[in-house]
Specification:
Length: about 290
């Protein structure tokens, strides 16, 4: 793990990577806390290379500043630490990309993002809307982060895709908060997403069909193929100012899902670089 001092010593970095080893608010199965080192290892695995599909060399020197992993510790509030870590990345001019944890981590991340970007849009990939007012008595549950975000007024727009687990309560919540939801049953591959405000991307691995990413806590068949999700990311026309990849649970499956998370990391990172200044590091593409 890098220290903050090592990380600050990298002045050319554009993206700040933060591992979040926190699954305290998972309602059904723990394990998402174990994801960060496995996603990092899959990203660096010799089985592939470090180039994104659009020709960005993510192995180029100094592109990333890695702030290490946040671990819950007794007597400390992990949510406060996550918010502070994201704020520090933003203070150094970095676009945060968080890896791991359950989806509860997105509320403190978005708190920090919204303080910097008052008109933030969120594109949320998930099988679940995560809009419960509370879940099993826990308002911090991973089933609740988007209710917390919307009631705090942290997002100008919330667009949810991949959703296929709606119930009455969450439909009321979606109406109340003005969520723009495209349920999976209405999905078409030619849908285009445009945002005219800074965009935060929150990627719950269970938006994918469990056939493509079985290492998750809540299998919900009927989801995106990996290719469909990549198509949405690659087709975005918006400045992506931050992103997370959450809910990879290595206790359920650790190999295919780690590679899928690393692939998403690569393509999201490349898209973030494409939409940030200066021009991304690219070299000759295959002709
Ligand atoms: Mn979720
Ligand atoms: Mn989910």
């Amino acid at each position: 793990m890098q220290t903050w001092e090592q990380f600050i010593a990298n002045p050319n970095a554009r993206l700040g990577v933060l591992g979040i080893a926190d699954d305290e608010n998972s309602s059904y199965q723990r394990g998402a806390a174990e994801a960060p080192p496995l996603i990092r290892a899959a990203f660096h695995s010799d089985s592939s290379n470090l180039w994104s599909e659009n020709g960005t060399n993510l192995g180029a020197d100094g592109l990333f500043a890695d702030a290490g992993d946040i671990q819950p510790s007794p007597g400390r509030d992990t949510a406060v630490e996550i918010e502070a870590a994201i704020t520090r990345l933003l203070d150094h001019g970095l676009r945060p990309l968080s890896l791991g944890g359950d989806h509860a981590v997105t509320f403190p991340i978005v708190k920090a993002m919204a303080a910097r970007y008052p008109r933030l849009s969120i594109l949320h990939f998930d099988a679940h809307p995560d809009l419960y007012d509370d879940f099993n008595g826990n308002r911090r549950s991973h089933a609740c982060p988007f209710a917390r975000i919307m009631e705090a007024g942290l997002a100008a727009r919330l667009v949810q895709i991949g959703i296929r687990t709606m119930n009455g309560h969450q439909r009321q919540q979606a109406d109340k908060f003005g969520v723009e939801m495209i349920e999976m049953r209405y999905w078409r591959d030619d849908l285009a997403f445009e945002f005219d405000t800074p965009l935060y991307l929150s990627f719950d691995m269970d938006c994918l069909d469990p056939a493509y990413a079985p290492g998750i806590s809540h299998w919900e068949p009927g989801g995106f193929s990996t290719r469909q999700a990549l198509g949405v990311i690659q087709g975005l026309r918006a400045p992506i100012v931050g992103a997370d990849i959450v809910e990879f649970n290595p206790r359920v499956e650790a190999r295919l899902t780690a590679m899928t998370a690393a692939k998403l990391f690569k393509e999201i990172a490349a898209k973030m670089l494409e939409t940030s200044q200066p021009t991304p590091v690219t070299e000759g593409k295959i002709r």
